[in-house]
What does this fold into?
Amino acid sequence: MDSKTMNLLHKIESKYGSIVNCPEDDPDYLAIRKIYPSTGHGARVVMAKDQIYRLAHEGYSISEIVNLVSGNDGDIYNFIKQQRIGIKTVFKFRIVAPTGEIYYVRSLRHFIKVMFHYRPSVSCLTFLKARRYRVKAGIYRWKFIGNGSYYLPPYLDKPVKREGIDYYVYEEDC
It folds into this structure.
């Protein structure tokens, strides 16, 4: 990179903090683009935006989305960050209560703390099984959680009942 480009880059970073935050119509950014034209990776991200939104809506993590969408990994990650696409928790456990309610949780310890207000002295699995809860480990994404089931992301202090595809509570909503 030559000194002219470096100077333009420093000007952009002093104005916006990062080139990522720079609008595409900024004169300094346009001058850099004349020197270094776009490789087209960003266009692939724009073409894949529907797929990115769909995967995020279905409950895939950022790393899974980056692996599933073709394109430059950094561009995809930046697109998710810039568009503030909500990412849902990928749950690790499906718990069936003795009364029949189904819970999806990331952590058994968090579930016990919320539901029983207790920290068990034995393993969490032993504690739950002793109370006739059935626990199954796996990967449970939002799209597989049925309506009427409960989910408990790590940032909530009580389970929430799913009542539709758009009924997810994000951390920002708390």
